[in-house]
Amino acid sequence: MCTQQISDNELVAQFIKGDENALQKLIIRHEKKVYTSIYLLVKDSDLANDIFQDTFIKVINTLRSGNYNEEGKFLSWVLRIAHNLTIDHFRGQKRMPMAYDTEEYSIFDTLPLMDSNVEDKIINKQIQIQVRQLIDQLPFDQKEVVIMRHYGNMSFKEIAEATNVSINTSLGRMRYAIINLRKMIEEKNLMLSAD
Amino acid sequence: MKSECTLNDLVDYLYNETQLLKTVEVQNTIDNNEEINEIYQDMVAISKALDDSLIAPAACVRESIMNYARLTAPF
Known about the structure:
heterodimer; A: mainly alpha; Rna Polymerase Sigma Factor, Chain: A; Arc Repressor Mutant, subunit A; 8 helices; globular; B: mainly alpha; 4 helices; 71% helix
């Protein structure tokens, strides 16, 4: 497990000076949150990979052009880029995707190496898929705030500004998202862990 | 003193966005009100489930990004 001894700001500064390893560290540090955020909206792994790539290409170009001025909120900034690219894609398509793709990737793709048994791995994988599907069933504004707050580490104030609502509204959307997720978990009788 | 802890307060508290006095108030409510505590524990479990549902992009994508960075590096 990688400890975060170097801040995002320091890695950004190193990359701007020409250290490409710093960029790699930033990507590795944040890729899961960025990719999951995109995937939850587009529901297609190939498309999510494309938008993820486009996001970081934009990140690279903006950092090198000297236009980065986020004062320590690197992940929030990257998430906003990813979010905007995703919305641009939907505008081009003129519709939102209705269903996930089959999520066909190896059970061991994203699970850490540890001494749990195969059955636990399979169960955990199923839980991951089910949780993502539950998030997908949320109304778009609730799904959006879950992605921005939980994965994007944006404050409710920042979310409110980004989505043109009051802080209370963004808080309320998150509240309803959690209530709805809780309700769906109860209705489907889901266990949230393999224990 | 009667504590007024709303669900919005619990959400704020869950994400560490409460001010100091409100933090203390919410914590006291969680500690002393069984119903609120149960709701809060559900929120914590959901928060953990959201964390556990993270997925990574394809490995080749990161390589493509790094290739782009190398190829377009300024002299």
